[in-house]
Amino acid sequence: MNLMITKEIRKSILQMVYRSKSSHIGSCLSIVEILYVLYFKVMRIDPAHPDNESRDKFILSKGHASAALYATLAEKGFFQKQLLERFYVDYGLLPGHVDMKAVPGIEASSGSLGHGLSIGIGMAIANKLSNNPGHIYVLLGDGECNEGSIWEGVMIAPMLKLDNLTVIIDLNKLQGYGRSDEIINQSNIIERWKAFGWDTYDIDGHDTEEIEVALKYYHSMPKVIVANTIKGKGISFMENKLEWHYKSPNTEEYQKALAELGD
Ligand SMILES: Cc1ncc(C[n+]2csc(CCOP(=O)(O)OP(=O)(O)O)c2C)c(N)n1
């Protein structure tokens, strides 16, 4: 079941990016298992009632990986899968960076990196004030963690004891133009977040059981899950290759990738 759904999500991402000749396929492929576990195993959400007051909320702060979120929402039944054909095309419906007004199920627009954590903290505070049981999940890129605004959020969330907030860092170790540890070395990222008072977890971000256990584990403080992932995961020639941040597959590459993902 896990495998079938994650494979379908990967196929949708591939088709969307190929059709629109757009970027960020590697960034999408590293977060498929995380999105799958959130939307199919953990979050209390109902595609038939996307505005339910007490729902859990997810913010994809690395909004350039929009294709992965749109594909997961379609798979979950928030909207018809056919709408994915309208990704990043002229007169399309689904913009290249996440748009909360495009389709049901999206909680925040994103794309300018560094804002999702603060938005999530605001939502978590609002839920506390109104006794709303909804939990807030925020997914950050590891390169995105170079943004100063992220560290304002890292400092304030434990002070406010936001135990209704979970952050997942997609540690795929690559950014747009290079390796994360060569740009700003945060190889001790867990110790850094821990020092500010976060509950920390270090997991394999492609192991769905590990992801589920980490997400469901009780925590009294805000939690950060550092998910070790592979950029381009699932398509062999894209794995851990910087060029697939911006590159779009040509027809030959598309066919090869599709064959790898199989039926
Ligand atoms: C504020 C801001 N600066 C620059 C960019 C351009 N940009 C898009 S993706 C990216 C790299 C992000 O790297 P990372 O967070 O590691 O995500 P990944 O794509 O590796 O998953 C950059 C710099 C942006 N979207 N927003």
From TrEMBL:
<dbReference type="InterPro" id="IPR005474">
    <property type="entry name" value="Transketolase_N"/>
</dbReference>
<dbReference type="InterPro" id="IPR029061">
    <property type="entry name" value="THDP-binding"/>
</dbReference>
<dbReference type="Pfam" id="PF00456">
    <property type="entry name" value="Transketolase_N"/>
</dbReference>
<feature type="domain" description="Transketolase N-terminal">
    <location>
        <begin position="6"/>
        <end position="255"/>
    </location>
</feature>
<protein>
    <submittedName>
        <fullName>Transketolase</fullName>
    </submittedName>
</protein>
